[in-house]
Write a structure and sequence with these properties.
22% strand; 6-stranded mixed beta sheet; 3-stranded antiparallel beta sheet; disordered N terminus; disordered C terminus; Rossmann fold
Length: 314
Amino acid sequence: MATALALDPEAEAVPAVLARGLCLARGAREVLAELELRIAPGQVVGLFGSNGAGKTSLLQALAGLLPVRQGELRLFGGTPAQARRSIGYVAQAVPDGAYARLRVRDFVACAWRGELWGLGLSPALRARRADAVDRALEAAAAAHLAQRGMDELSGGERQRVCIAQALVNPVRMLLLDEPLANLDPRSQRGVLELVRELRERQGLTVLLSAHDINPLLGVMDRVLYLAGGRGRLGGVDEVIEPVTLSALYGLPMRVARHDGYLFIHPSRGFMAEEGGHCHHGDADSASARGQGHEHPHEHEPGRGPARHPAGDAP
């Protein structure tokens, strides 16, 4: 049984997210156990952990897409089902062919008032939908892309349009699953600046998952780190430190800081692919520190870790 986590003392009386003894599962496999969370409205929370740690499962539970196996989960005081229309969710991937022959404007419009799906819209409702699409594209700084085809966009442009789709209905919380994946540093910076602006202009609560903590250091208010079915929520210095990470992983961990970057690695040797986690800014310095990682590449026996391309934090 995992140890309960301390609640965030800065969270307001009616938090955006409140979890008590939360357990989530995929079939027979328990993903998270006894998770305790309290997140205040308007906070940006970075969600980290290795592959299979439960990041996507938690986001899907918050979006009302994955049922709670045990415990309590409340969003703005209600159940996930009650709060579902107040949640905007951007998945990590879309089905193959989902973008074929779709204009940006149509892609965003198809998510407007999903409860009306399949029904003919009156002229008045069509006008309301058009207005909602305009506002969502403007909020995501993507209005100039409205007439482009979804399959013509760059990765950064597509991510902005997906966020616009999540905003086409009035929402109070935005859930982003790996929004920086496969983006170059400039595009990553643009997405994170958008997240900051949405929090400041609309007061949105934002949870976004990522593999690398470094780009988010200037954006997020809290860190939620998942490992071994457990989690810890707090400030960067509270969570990204050896004692906390060692307890989560169940093995001695170290945290190195260099030139403004954080590097997390085991005290001895490398972690296995399913257990490792990588936060890197510079490949050479990261490798020299014995950094564990989880990116989809292979190591040759006896050759040590594969090299990562260098990246810049925004």
